[in-house]
Amino acid sequence: MNFNDIEYERVNYEYIRKQYMKILHKIENSTDFSRVKSLIRKLNVYRKTVLTMNTVASIRFSINTNDEFYKAEKKYWDEYSPLFSDLDIDFYRVLLNSNFEEELKNEFGEQFYRYIKTLLDSFSKEIIVDLQEENLLMSEYTSLLASAKIDFDNRVCNLSDMSIYTSSNDENIRKNAIKAHTKFFEDNEEKFDELFDKLVKNRDKMAKKMGFDNFIELGYLLMNRTDYNAKMVSNLRENVIKKYVPLANELYRQQADRINVNKMTYYDEQLEFLDGNAKVVGDGNYIMEQGRKMYSEMSKETDEFINFLLKNNLFDVEARQAKAMGGYCSIVYDYNEPFIFGNFNGTVDDVDVLTHEAGHAFQVYMSRGEEMPELVFPTLDSCEIFSMSMEFFTYPWMDLFFAEDTEKYKKYHYDSAIKFLPYGALVDHFQHEIYAHPEYSPSRRKEIWRNLEKIYLPHREYSDLEFLERGGFWFRQGHIFKNPFYYIDYVLAQICALQFHDLMKVDREDAWNRYLEISKLGGRYSFLELVDIAKLENPFE
User: Fold this and answer.
1) What is the pLDDT of residues 362-409, one digit of tens each?
2) What radius of gyration, in Å, describes the C-alpha atoms of the chain?
3) 56 by DSSP, 3-state: which?
């Protein structure tokens, strides 16, 4: 289905609730598993309609946060999605309490059973009002970021637009751009602090209503983690400090040598080469055309995939005023179609969107035969294996985008993968500290961030950027506001992606076949099970 042709219609909660109740009653009273399967398929029609309309409203709101119609629809879904989730919880409870445990496991896999148990254990009718409040606060954060209007270079820029200036090899442009970008967050410091404080206290309240000491354990359940825990993640962070912080420091030292500075400050971090960073040779349309060529040549499967996406307008990547920040891949469940959202800004990030988000989309495309919505995407830690590894699989085609700057890009990209690991662990550590101490004041939270920065990013020197020196950098990290405890998934997946990178250098065909195999498995296996199937080393070890 062409995304532009999808007709949006608000779903009536009461009508859907009645359909659920009828079908669940029949499932509870059925003694024939074939009958149960038929009823699940019937229920999935309604479930997918709900998911599809919610996703379409969210995407169209993201495309234009000033669109009054979709602003109202986003508000509707912020309020009603917890109520629809409650209906799904009733469905999961019926399945778990049925006499068909073995049949269900054989049909949908052991991981499906474990997965729906995390959903049951992380939800209660008591917290529906709190979930509604959380949704509204997260939407407010999205709108606050999208509201940025920065006067720079004789134009009005959003935050994404500023990237081309903050990485300029002209020192004055770079410094002024970083100051202007930072000023937006400093000018809105009170708003960001207030929003985050409300989110932390909201999540802590939900956890305590459900009998947890704090939000950390609930947060892990909400991330659907079934084969590792907070202690294993803490050990992973320690390993990152021991192994990757020294590696990253050496890369920053090499970078300082390349750009001819004795001591690198934050103003210099985004400049990789003295004569300028790798530059994309064309505009957004050119990048999309080269993307088609790249994926058409990569494999039979990626050829079918990219043509399917482009034919059905399953991309929106042009940066515009009032467009939400960031990039993501969603699923339009009625058709099991991926949709890629991004903000092209004329930097290397444009190509990273085309590779990273396309990695997510490719996995969805390869798993599109799954009937159960929960089995199209794996858990988020596994999802990121596909996105981050695809960035490396596309290396042989980077000359299409960078021409004579190709080697510059590869050097920047590979170094960034290593440099990311300490930052990713920092974000995770910060969230553990914050949710263990929800009573912390805004100033204390910033102090905690800056102290952790000195452990994970010891090279970082903010010079005269007083707001960042006080610990305000994390305001720009949307996952901290909207997706608590997600960020360590990127660390886990990056360690896997780096293994794929090394495997490619030995036997690219073998590496690709391993990637292709796990991309077809949807959500039927846990993170560590997928790692094992792909014959990768366990990132925790």
Assistant:
1) 999 999 999 999 999 999 999 999 999 999 999 999 999 999 999 999
2) 23
3) helix
Quote the CA–CA distance of 206 and 397 in Å, as a whole number: 48
Nearest CA to 500 out of 392, 373, 397, 359 is that of 392
Element of type H or E holding 339:
strand 337-344
pTM (two decimals): 0.94
**Partners of 332 in the beta sheet?**
337
Q: Measure the CA–CA gap between 533 and 530, rounded to whole angstroms.
A: 5
Dist. CA 71–CA 317, nearest whole Å: 20
| Dihedral over Cα of 96, 102, 108, 110: its sign | positive
What DSSP state is assigned to residue 373? G
Indicate the pLDDT class of residue 325, thresholds 50, 70 and 90: confident
The SS3 of residue 337 is: strand
CA distance 326 to 317: 10
pLDDT > 90? residue 319: no
Distance CA 356, CA 344 (A): 13
Q: What angle do CA 323, 328, 330 make, to 5 degrees?
A: 105
> How many of the other CB atoms lie within 10 Å of CB of 340?
20
Can you state the angle between helices 349-366 and 380-393, rounded to 10 degrees?
120
> What's the gap between Cα 383 and its chain centre?
9
